[in-house]
Amino acid sequence: MTEESGTPARVVVADDQTVVREGIVMLLGLLPGVEVVGAAGDGEEAVKLVAELAPDVVLMDLRMPRCDGVEATRRIRSEYPGTQVVVLTTFADDDSLFPALRAGARGYLTKDAGGEEIVRAVRSVLCGDAGLSPSIQRRLLERLSEPERGARPATQAPDGLTARETEVLVLIAEGLTNQEIARRLHVSTATVKTHINNLFAKAGLKDRAQAVRYAYAKGLVRPPSQ
Questions:
Q1: Is the entire prediction scored with pTM above 0.70?
Q2: For 10, left (φ over 0), alpha (ψ -120 to 50), or beta?
Q3: Which of 40, 65, 70 is nearest to 55 (CA)?
Q4: Would 96 disulfide with which of 91, 103, 148, 167, CB 3.0-4.6 Å?
Q5: For the chain, which residues score pLDDT lower than 50?
């Protein structure tokens, strides 16, 4: 969609709650500049609709069954780069916001956004800009101005660990489970287990407790008090 052409943006709405999904579709149907061409009940269906309909934008919820919004966003941006993603979710916490942006979302709104704000976000991402609500912009600025928690001194990975294996090791030391590491890195749990097996073998580790001690001993993480 461009302001010059006046062509409406073709949009797919993805939300697992039927009432919410239908409400968003109805709201957008009343506004100029947007044409809803499909609606999906989960991330898997959203990816399929993008493949079939080639929409300009997907309005993507995050917490959905089968395939969540972050994974669906990653797949859409990787496989169908002509389609942009604007997250429309209840959640504005860091654990929701940053994985979605890293996955390729160009916009992020909370569900208290009005119809005009949604249309502005859609227009912004299609013009190459970010479609972020004011509250999300403030949160990004606050996060960028914060000192990095648990900041680690730059150090060469020990014992031949790859960058990814080192990253997994640090997350283990921070107390994350395999499932949480998989979500953080946008990979499967099986991939995480492979990285763990490899780094355990290289570093001569037997369990996660040893891995935590190893990470601290090698200076990969520091106690919070430091």
A1: no
A2: beta
A3: 40
A4: 91
A5: 1-4, 147, 149-155, 225-226
